[in-house]
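User: quick one
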Amino acid sequence: MSDSSDEEVLVKTAPTQPSKSRVKKKKEQNENVKNGAKNDEESDSGEDVGKEVEEDTKSFAELGVTEILVEACERLGWKEPSKIQRLSLPAALSGRDIIGLAETGSGKTGAFALPILQSLLEHPQKLFSLILTPTRELAFQIAKQFEDLGTRIGLLVAVIVGGVDMTTQAIALAKLPHIIVATPGRLVDHLENTKGFSLRALKFLVMDEADRILNMDFEVDLDKILKVIPRERRTYLFSATMTKKVQKLERASLRDPVRVEVNSRYKTVDTLVQQYIFVPQKYKESYLVYLLNELAGKTTGIDRPKLAIIFVATCLSVDTIARMLRQLGMAAVSLHGQMTQQKRLGALNAFTTGSRNILVCTDVASRGLDIPEVNYVLNYDVPGQAKDYVHRVGRTARAGRSGLAITFVTQYEVAEYQRIEAHIGKKLTDYPCVADDVMHLVERTNEAMKAAREELKEIEERKKRGKRTYDDSDTEEKAGGRFKKRLKNQNQKGGPKIKDKLAKR
Amino acid sequence: MPPKRKKAGPPKEEIANESEEDSLAKRVHKDPNLWKDFIDAHFAADRLSTLTLPKTSRTTSKYKLPSLGDIVHFKGCDELETPIGKTIRPEDAGWSDRLTLNYRRLLEQSSDIDENANSEIFSLLSQYVDFTGNPSASSNYRLCYVGHLLNHVIKTRNLILQNKKKLEEIDEINLDDATLQSTRDQGFVRPCVLVLLPFRKDAFEVVNIMESLVFGGGEKPNVANRKRFKDEFGDTGYRVSGARLVEETFRDTMEGNVDDCFRMGVAISKKELKLYSPFSKSDIILCSPLGLRMILNGDQGDESQFISSIQIVVADKCDVLLQQNWEHVITIFKWLNKKPKQIEADIRRVRTLYLDGTAAHYCQTLLFGDYQHEQFTSLSLKHSLSHCGLVLHYPTVEGVLDKVNIPICQELHRINVKNAEESSDARFQYFKDKLLGKLEMHTMIFIPSRNVESFVQCHEYAPDNKISRARDLFYHGKKKLLLVTERFHFFKRFHLRGAKNILFYQLPNDPSFYANMINMCSSDGMRVKAILPFSQFDRLRLSNVFGKQMAAGILKSEKQIQAIVSE
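Assistant: Done. Structure below.
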């Protein structure tokens, strides 16, 4: 992998792969495929040669995208291809497998959606493509883009994620959608339990945030999925970060992939200002409140409230801190993995529309979320892994906007923090603050904190008494405890149960 | 005992059976296949949704059939293939030869049958229109609907088996969209017919009809679990004492196996009628409202998915179901054809109409009762959404006044109510303010549903000793009033003596009870006084009692109190 930390663009393909524009003509494309195949026999799949691509500004049409899809792109406001699209589209349209290294928000979805749709237009077929993503939010985001692109061509997209009722999804699958966007766990659940659902005719597999899919508990599920889909297929792998695991997977399920890389190596954008703030553990909350007040006071020349994301280590502290902030009159919502899907979407919606301007969350939200207007990212707890840091701060300074990321470092977290600094290869500056001002806030913050804890305790007790009152008060409606319980059951049964249905295949 | 349903293992023999051609219905020989027209009709969702509009906004047409009398047809999505009034024979409806033959034979065998009425009902049913009506017993409507639903089930099964065979021959990878679409032939679950019956003895009769229709008279019927069925559903030998002076109808209703809690699946496969098949492998569900209600969603389980793909629902003897517990019927209809919690079929073969959630429009609803009632009408107006339309039956009713044997003076009090919701409050208010004070000694108060009042009461939940004490106190004049509920009369049919006057809090559901109750009174040669408060929402009940014409006159009259005297 390249060491360059600059915005350098690399395409690595087989040596004789022509880089000139592969325009429209299907015949020509077929030829290219043939050429590619031949060449690949000679070159080892892992071995690739870097080749600088001239800074071109080709349009979608020039890259080989058919007219109807170009129109769709225009409708979506995609005027010209993003870097990752420019690099991956020619290879993808010529029928190669792709490994794409790029951040979300760089146009990744378009980079795999367009070739899939184009191929679908040529050979219409139900259950054509499967897109796997690690989080439910991401799944909905991707599905939306597919739907937007496919409105004119009658595209059917199904989202298969946890936390949503199985029957509704089974009905969606029964309609035989062209595209399935899924999280691995629930998909396996359907493969095992929904009669008649099979992916044996699948033509495309895409893994988004591939490293995450492998890092978490998805590996078992993924293996099950790979077992039941045809080997004869095209596979795209997209990820912002590359791990060894991905390389392993690459060998397992890719065929002569083209590697496309938009400046990886934990690149952070220039418009992003990164700072840290050294705080005593005892007054951490007060510092947070102080900082939020400070940031809210800054003018950016925009009327709408400035959006801030606060990353916290655990689900419990997410709840506590969100409540504490609300006690102090701030519009905070929480988002973490223990919430129901409905509430997660609700919270996210409240945040993106700006009706709440502070999102308190765990690492669930660290990847993939594309909310361009986020102004601040606060790392209330230092992330455990350096990679997570990059993902977290990547939530701000998106799409050319400026952004500020501040990491809280307590006396106990210095070592972790230094690891991160080493990883991103940068020394960050200290965020200046007036300690006296913070001390003024201590009393009020502690009161709010106390009230927040009591609230949570009360909820906990009510839950124990079996009443369905899990009141997160983020949103108006109360989520039923029943629903939560069901969710839990589902999560439990997901793992070890590989049913005879899969075994039969 | 309701049949225990087990999670069945892989049905080996059944698969073997199914792969062969079903011999029950060999071939369909007529082209106008009403069954196919019904189930394969594809209407756009917006056209179907017009069916859920209030019925007043739909096109209606009135007919007078020679036998059935007045009917009103609410038009469905399309005109009917055969206009109402024209006769459809089983062979026109695409029935198999064998089924037709057996049907004919059964018709001939049955004594005193009104063949015209029978064929009028058949013509309606076989066109898949929803029907709510009061055919007389002599029309043998039961034979009609059993034959109709057997035809439906057999054809549905045959299609499914054919398609199964077809799919087995094609490799999964090569399946094209057209094939997939053409093999969508089933619902979320297998049961496609639901029959609600009040008592086990009714189920016994229905199964017997099925048997004779499927196997005819000649061959040996091949029925699984026949013995067990006979033990559990056959006659228990219970008889109402011959010494009691009760009407014949009471004996007919209450004698025999009157257990009202049962549910049973019936499956039809190659040359066999399977009773007690697990619901997931049944074509027909036969049950009492109570029996089904118990497994819908409650302590007994949550298996509402079994009625998620019903294509014909029959509620037979609605009048008895009304006396049992109408709530259950309403609950069942509420769950009917809703999105299931669990899908048992192969999702690639589920019909699009189920996926699109338009199942309710592809379901034929048949309600049969002895008399007209606002509950039956309201149920069918709400749930009869078949794309073929709905037929309401308004037979001419003569009233029951001629059955009253003693001289009476009927005092009719008009209660003015604006809407139906207020009517029960208004009625109570009127009763309290205007009537209660004026009641004389020896007045019996008849209440169609159980009410909380402290007099001596005879209601269906009271233990026998309490009832006899109450009757005694009332008879000897120690208590002024006696309250009787309709269900008490329905189930017990006791003769209550000592009443000289009677007040009908509301007119009875069952019109014949009006005469029954009055006949119990005796006023030593004087006229018995019957007081009946009524409101304009009692139209059906009034016409059931007084006959259509007289009821119309009563309702039209402006007078607050009207009196009708008879000798």
